Prior knowledge:
CATH architecture: Orthogonal Bundle
Largest sheet: none
Radius of gyration: 21 Å
Strand content: under 5%
Shape: elongated
CATH class: Mainly Alpha
Amino acid sequence: MTYTFDFNTVLASSDKLLYGAWLTFVITVISLVIGVVIAAFGAYQLTNGSRWTQRIWGVYIEIVRNTPLLAQLFLIFFGLPSLGLKLNANVAAVVALSFNFAAYAAEIIRSGVESIPRGQTEAGKALGLKPGQIFFRIILKPALATIYPALAAQCVLVLLGSAIISTISANDLSSIAAVIQSATFRPFEVYFVVTAIYLAMALALQGALDLLGRFAFPFQNAREAR
């Protein structure tokens, strides 16, 4: 049996694929921004909070890290309406990706915070700063510089993992690809092109994060250069 490749039918829908790629990128970036904010607050609670807040955050992190993202996504999109909170597919996707990423990022940031010498904390106390001020003004930036490569890698994983939101019909690249595939009956061509687009987006995000790291943490880059 021979198979005749025909990419023309797929390229004819390139505008739709590019639109889906753009929406995927937007959903990912919004999720990452929200997730980093949650993670930074979580890392503060894990290192400076009371015993109960540490336990609560610990339970949240363990639940997220030990359950599938798909189950979390379905719980938010299909489960919350039972409690009277109905979200559209794109919003549910952002919520699921944000809270999933935040759990992993909080642990990454916590490890960076714990690597900072206690002398910096003691110096902040000597200046009369409160624990929150010490954490966010003194500790957080060098901690982020230390763990930035791991955090950036996790960001790329969020982009690639976002393909799963097509299961709730969110307007992402995978969802649009499925529609094109069902209309053209060209699964190989469609998903070959989609794979190439995901690769390009992942490389673009990695490059953008590398540039951001060089701009945000110039002292860390100078230290590594030596």
